[in-house]
């Protein structure tokens, strides 16, 4: 899937909820009551990820992150059972047959603990897009949001002294009508982004036909990052 095709899908899916900020003007009460609320989600297809790390590099560059810090990580998992031989190669150690990768980043929770505990309102949900992000001017550096995150996905940016998290490139790429940097960079179509509240969007149609899972769903945070797990059928 080409970057241009995916970008066209994304822009088409924006519809009435365009992310490009328009000039402020007068609007009726009825228009405000009927305002459309998007739910932006990201889907990570574990079957397609090869662990190249280019998504991480693109994110760091787009969001000007300091060296040694990143809003996303790629965690490698083997899937092997310790002490048991691999059914494919027979090895009990050093087996890479079941190698798979998992994206570790902010889950963009609908019930975000980081937003709930923030005493200054710095960690908040963007009113236009619903995306969890930070107001740098309000952050006191207390780290409450970091401690409250059950996914260990937040950190203090040493250059800004502000808590940081993946906000789907809200203030960098999305602000100019582009897909998140990681999605644009992925050459293997392992990352899909869009509005799940729009039934005509590609991401909605994908989730309708693909089984997906969430990390730690029992916490009740309702993550917006979905994972399509590897499913290998036996012979």
TrEMBL record:
This is 4Fe-4S dicluster domain-containing protein. PANTHER family: PROTEIN NRFC, PROTEIN NRFC HOMOLOG. The keyword Iron applies. It comes from Shewanella pneumatophori. It holds the Pfam family Fer4_11. It comes from the Bacteria. Residues 40-68, 98-128, 130-159 form the 4Fe-4S ferredoxin-type domain. InterPro entries: 4Fe4S_Fe-S-bd, 4Fe4S_Fe_S_CS, ET_IronSulfur_Cluster-Binding, TAT_signal. One of its GO terms (molecular function) is 4 iron, 4 sulfur cluster binding. SUPFAM superfamilies: 4Fe-4S ferredoxins (SSF54862). Keywords: 4Fe-4S, Iron, Iron-sulfur, Metal-binding.
């Amino acid at each position: 899937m080409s970057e241009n095709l995916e970008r066209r899908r994304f822009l088409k899916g924006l519809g009435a909820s365009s992310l490009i900020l328009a000039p402020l003007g007068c609007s009726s009460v009825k228009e405000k009551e009927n305002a459309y609320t998007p739910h932006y989600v990201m889907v990570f297809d574990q079957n397609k990820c090869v662990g190249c790390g280019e998504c991480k590099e693109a994110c760091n560059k787009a969001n000007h992150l300091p060296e040694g810090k990143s809003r996303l990580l790629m965690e490698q998992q083997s899937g092997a059972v310790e002490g048991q031989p691999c059914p494919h190669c027979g090895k009990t150690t050093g087996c890479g047959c079941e190698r798979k990768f998992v994206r570790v980043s902010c889950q963009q929770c609908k019930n975000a603990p980081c937003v709930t505990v923030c005493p200054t309102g710095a960690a908040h949900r963007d009113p236009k897009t619903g995306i969890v992000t930070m107001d740098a001017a309000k952050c006191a550096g207390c780290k409450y949001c970091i401690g409250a995150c059950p996914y260990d996905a937040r950190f203090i940016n040493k250059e800004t002294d502000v808590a940081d998290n993946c906000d789907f490139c809200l203030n960098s790429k999305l602000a100019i009508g582009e897909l998140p940097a990681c999605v644009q960079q992925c050459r293997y179509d392992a990352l899909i982004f869009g509005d799940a509240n729009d039934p005509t969007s590609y991401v909605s149609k994908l989730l309708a036909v693909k089984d997906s899972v969430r990390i730690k769903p029992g916490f009740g945070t309702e993550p917006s990052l979905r994972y399509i797990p590897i499913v290998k059928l036996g012979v």
